[in-house]
Design brief:
The structure holds two protein chains of two kinds. Chain A is built from six helices and nine strands, in the order E-H-E-E-E-H-E-E-H-E-E-H-E-H-H. Chain A is α+β, with helices and mostly antiparallel strands. The mean pLDDT of chain A is 92. In chain B, a hairpin with a 7-residue loop joins strand 4 and strand 5. Chain B has three domains: 200 residues, Aldehyde ferredoxin oxidoreductase, N-terminal domain (Aldehyde Ferredoxin Oxidoreductase,  A, domain 1, 4-Layer Sandwich); 186 residues, Aldehyde Ferredoxin Oxidoreductase Protein, subunit A, domain 2; 171 residues, Aldehyde Ferredoxin Oxidoreductase Protein, subunit A, domain 3. The chains are: A alpha+beta, B alpha+beta. Chains A and B meet through helix 1 and strand 2 of A and strand 13 and helix 7 of B.
Chain lengths: 161, 611
Amino acid sequence: MANNGRALVLDPLKCTGCHSCEVACSTAREGASSLVRSRIRVLAFEADDFNCPIVCQQCQTPYCALVCPTRALVKNADTGIVDWVQSKCVGCKMCLVACPFGALNMADGGNVLKCDLCQGDPVCVRFCQPGALSYGTLDEVGGGQRVKFAQTMKQAQLKEV
Amino acid sequence: MAGGYSGKLLRVDLTAGTVRDEPLPGDDVLRKYVGCVGLGVKTLCEELPPGAKPLDPSNPLIFMTGPLTGTPVPGASNCCVITYNAETGFTAGTAHTHGQFGPQLKYAGYDGIVVTGASPRPVFLWVHDGKAEIRDAGKVWGKDTHETEDLVKAEVGEPRASVAAIGPAGENLLGGASIENDKHHLAAAGGVGAVMGSKKLKAVAAFGHGAIPVARPKDLIEVTAAWRPASAAARQNTPALITKRWAFFGDIGVLATKNLLAPAQGKDIGHKYADACLTYIKPVGKPCLSCPVACSYKAKVTSGPRQGLVGTLGGGGESMEGAAAMVGVSDPADVVWITDLYDRLGMNASSVGCAISLAFECYERGLLTREDTDGLELRWGNVEVAAALVKKVVAREGFGKVLAEGPKKAAELIGGEAPKYAVHMKGAGFNLHDWRGRYAKMLDQTVSGAGPRHESMAPDGFSPTPTKIEGAAETIAKTQRSKLFKDCVGSCMFMWTGGASVATEMRALAAVTGWEGLTEDEMLAVGSRVANMERVFNMAHGLTIADDLDMSPRMQEAPAEGPAKGHSMAPYLKGAVMDYYRFMGWEPETGRPLPQTLARLGLEHMATQLP
């Protein structure tokens, strides 16, 4: 859910489908630019003008870890990140199936491609100019919506008066 | 192999019906020519057989990416199409396109495709994950570009594939035919669509799961993370803002209106459009791969007679000017509709639109009558008549046959005063805005080595007031080196505003390729090499100084109104062209590259091709 209380938050309505996050992620983490070897993926529904970024949400109850037969995926109590431990992974792909978001990928060599928030500075966020990706505290995550809602209420109240 | 490259070229011989892989040249060659127009023009110069014509099967049609294409560099989507120019007939032709096609070609395992020969029946090419197949295109021949994209994706069963296709204009070998990809993008100039049509190649589809190796990923992330927001901020053409830019063009009098007769009316057309995009036309950004800006957009008409229309426009206003404003069409929804028609037919509105607008002016002046135009009344602003005429041109039917020859030839065929009204350079279309009074930009277009187009970074193109001729030639010669270098690497020219100097591009190039010790001089030499290769190629195919001075009378006359009123290029043109030659290291009288200029660039072997 969070890395030192911070979370990577997705807003599909702001995503323009430029795929910058994917080429940045694959370059920074895999040393090669690709739309496939990325830990974040964007599904584009071109005709409907809808683009959906998908990435590990570091779930509180990580199904990927629950199904992992070798405990290669573990929720880290200190950081909140679901860690992937390469030495324990047998490459069974059960985690890929279990993730409700389909957020996990596997590289050709068998490495599970799973977001670890780039040690607190996710490169995808830096490459997202439209602001569909943000990285903030849990208080900030819903903060924008709260302010928007409160302002709507305020306007309604002012009209009544 | 250096990073940034997939390492392979695809060779396609459509006469034999064969495909084969070929390794890219080694690092020594790549450092000199880099990619895109650099590698493409080099290949064209080496492989076009003597005596071949643009529409001959032996003319190679070259799709070429650069090492930055498909990387996290902003706007890293450039793919160039290079061939013997079918529109001018005596120059190289280069066209740039963006979207997803170039990146997908690289993810599919190829840096470029060289197509030669001609197929006896319509075919398309399916390039995917290191393989290529020539497939039957009988079912899509005759379809427009958008339908073709959809049908080809369905045929190959990969909705994520990117498709570059010709429309009926390319099939019918129109000089102004383009290649369209990803709905919003055109490799517009150079007659590339006609060359593709002459090969009976309807489309190329590309998709791959591959990855482009990056030599120094950390460096690349560092360079580009700073570059991207700067470009996004400088461009200011996010989906909503790009539409305002057309109003700005109108304000400064560069919005090409009514065959360039009415620069002052561009203001009204531009503002009406920008206002409509805040009310009943909804712009939705459709960025190219790795673009922080998104200047391409869907224009969705939400009310009025054209409610439900969705136009797939690109950034800038050239195509809207060529298709709509040049014939006086000003209703915003009509502008979207007819611009989209040009895109679907697969042609360059900057070129074919000038032939159409010429006919309108000739009709209004009484030089043409309904008998000449198959009954069409060519009155300014009549969008339905303009569309009917466009379709006749594409079908080469009736009066359309005359206009299909392009604005210069059509004017000669119409006769009388018509040649005085035509808008063209070298008989071809150019990057269509009303550049009159902006002398450096005018010079840029007329001396460009790949037919009229942006080949330098003329600083005065969008100057609100007319500029001075002094210094124009030197500026063009100097910025042509940097522009053509940047045209080789694989990122979009719109990303160079906002701090992407040659040094920035060079750092990104070094990080991607891993090349050590790159210098700015070495990079500028890459650009000079392209300009000189094009010059030798063009002179070998008949270009003389007369062609560089072949700017149509309308382009040379002083506008009667608007900010450039009273400013004519005519007194300065020849002097400026000769000065430009001098700054390029070419003979001032002829533009013939001097032996020492070619030698300095390692092109001494090309001297023998000069006439």
